[in-house]
Specification:
binds adenosine monophosphate; 411 residues; 13 strands; disordered C terminus; seven-stranded parallel beta sheet; alpha/beta
């Protein structure tokens, strides 16, 4: 199927060509005709499948078709809510790209950033609003947002909304929109609570299911290292120096863990940045942009901060902590190996995380190849490849690992 078969109008076709897309992805093939037909749709798809364009393109087309309508540019006619700020920004960037040959106006609003510029733009009028739920409700309460004219309501990453405790806010937002509207729900997984939500807010929805959630992209080479918890940092440094080529997104379970690892890598001379929920929005965005533009090769993130983020040409994903939920493993490693590229996923498992690996392997029906040839094996009987020299590695006064290995560094 080609984009032509989807009967998209010229300005949108032109933007698609400018984006370099040759053919629609599966989720686009399935969802775009339904959205253009005005159906409510539940889409089960992971990020990386092209799901943003699957709703953005038909929404833009529908708004453009009615471009002579008196409401144009004055009223919010499409509302997209997203659980995280980064994702909201990314969705908005996509809208801007796809709308570049139309005169439709869009805006993104999110918390943790100054509200004034958002209010100023809202006052001028926008056709499309992308928002995180909290800031949206705030702006509505202050009367800067009128949702009475919303024709299409999109709930993106619904399962993450649920995980982050936004479900009540989502319901509130939905009730602020007109009853008569098109609703699209996107979710990587459809747990029963999301099913319930869909039953209450969607009207006779069509279903699109493109990726079995529990499947790992074939383009990702996985490797697992069993390592004592106390040696994880050393192994991480060892792999960064010797094995890992290209950029890398490192996942840690906690914000504290992210900060700690960032400090260690900085001390060892790496160019590194991090994102997590406690960071100011501007910091998170700067970190992400630097990483996306290649100025920083290592980004450390918590799951929530990284979920849904699309980074072109991400070479490596690194599970510093094993995720305890199989779906999270799929999401994390699905950040790489996209759009025809080959990616690599490294995972470190300590003794207390063995049950997580077991659960991941059983649930996903995979066997993650184990790399036992490394200096810090978990099994103490296993012969270490590199013996820690007495008084060398981690004692005061020794030459820093970074300076020692300077010549070998890949950035
Ligand atoms: P998403 O799942 O929306 O996060 O999209 C993942 C990536 O796929 C983004 O970088 C999009 O720009 C890209 N993309 C979306 N649609 C297509 C397409 N039809 N062909 C190639 N790349 C696409």
């Amino acid at each position: 199927m080609s984009f032509k078969d989807l009967k998209l109008i010229k300005p949108i076709q032109k933007a698609i060509e400018a984006s370099g897309y040759v053919e629609p992805t599966l989720v686009q093939q399935k969802a775009i005709p339904l959205v253009l037909n005005g159906k409510d749709v539940i889409v089960s798809a992971q990020t990386g499948t092209g799901k943003t364009a699957a709703f953005a393109l038909p929404i833009l087309q529908k708004l453009y078709d009615k471009q002579d309508a008196p409401k144009k540019g004055k009223k919010i006619r499409a509302l997209i809510i997203s659980p995280t700020r980064e994702l909201a920004v990314q969705i908005h960037q996509n809208f801007k790209t796809y709308a570049q040959y139309t005169n439709l106006r869009s805006l993104v609003v999110f918390g943790g950033a100054s509200i004034e510029p958002q209010i100023d733009t809202l006052k001028k009028g926008v056709d499309i609003l992308v928002a995180t739920p909290g800031r949206l409700l705030d702006l509505h309460k202050q009367d800067y947002v009128n949702l009475d004219y919303v024709e299409t309501f999109v709930l993106d990453e619904a399962d993450l909304m649920l995980d982050m405790g936004f479900l009540d806010d989502v319901k509130k937002v939905e009730r602020l929109c007109p009853e008569e509207k098109q609703t699209l729900l996107f979710s990587a997984t459809i747990p029963s609570k999301i099913e319930e939500l869909a039953n209450t807010i969607l009207n006779n929805p069509e279903r699109v299911d493109v990726t079995p959630t529990k499947s790992v992209a074939k383009a990702v080479t996985q490797v697992l290292y069993y390592v004592p918890k106390r040696n994880k940092i050393e192994l991480c440094l060892h792999l960064l120096r010797n094995n890992i080529k290209g950029n890398i997104l490192i996942f840690r379970r906690t914000k504290y863990g992210v900060d700690k690892l960032e400090q260690t890598l900085l001390k060892n001379g790496y160019s590194v940045n991090s994102i997590h929920g406690d960071k100011a929005q501007s910091e998170r965005q700067t970190a992400l942009n630097k990483f996306k533009n290649g100025y920083v090769k290592v980004l450390i993130a918590t799951d929530v901060a990284a979920r849904g983020i699309d980074i072109n040409e991400l070479d490596n994903v690194f599970n510093f902590d094993m995720p305890n939920v199989p779906e999270t493993y799929v999401h994390r490693i699905g950040r790489t190996g996209r759009a025809g590229n080959i990616g690599k996923a490294y995972s470190m498992c300590s003794a207390d995380e063995k049950s997580y690996v077991k659960k991941i392997q059983e649930s996903l029906n995979i066997s993650i190849p184990i790399e036992s040839e490394h200096p810090y094996p978990l099994d103490p009987k296993a012969k270490p490849i590199v013996h820690k020299k007495k008084g060398s590695k981690y004692k005061k006064g020794r030459k820093s690992t970074a300076s020692k290995k300077k010549k070998k560094r890949w950035y």
